[in-house]
Amino acid sequence: xxxxxxxxxxxxxxxxxxxxxxxxxxxxxxxxxIGAKVGSPAHGYESVYVDGRNWxxxxxxxxxxxxxxxxxxxxxxxxxxxxxxENLREATPSENGYNKILLTKSKSGIKNVQWISHMNxxxxxxxxxxxNKVMGYFEDLELADLVATEARDKxxxxxxxxxxxEQLA
Length: 169
Prior knowledge:
Strand content: 25-35%
Structural class: alpha+beta
Radius of gyration: 20 Å
Mean pLDDT: 91
Shape: elongated
């Protein structure tokens, strides 16, 4: 069966879901073995090529469980290849961005906190509704960290990520 449109039914006919992984139910190509784990890494995500199209595994897992594909799917714990259904949720692009981890190039070591040398202070700045908002300037890094954490909780809600990959229980 050829399908340019992936449906929940078609995905279930191709794959079995178990513990965040997909396994082949059918032999779609000579190198594919029934029961073999699906996917190969691409930019941190697992993906699979089906019927002339590349699919990210987390999108297929979401489709198989909920029956539709949102434009953006967020990995709650920030780990791109953790495709357990309990780690996936629908999000807007902004919400997905709120859940990003601390960049490795951060000089403060704290998400949303940067040093402003001409002021000799730490600045707390968050993106809120697609706009950068400065929450204040602080001499004390610990205070800046506290303000950033509270601001993320207030403005980013359940998508607030305080700069680290969080493990699910």
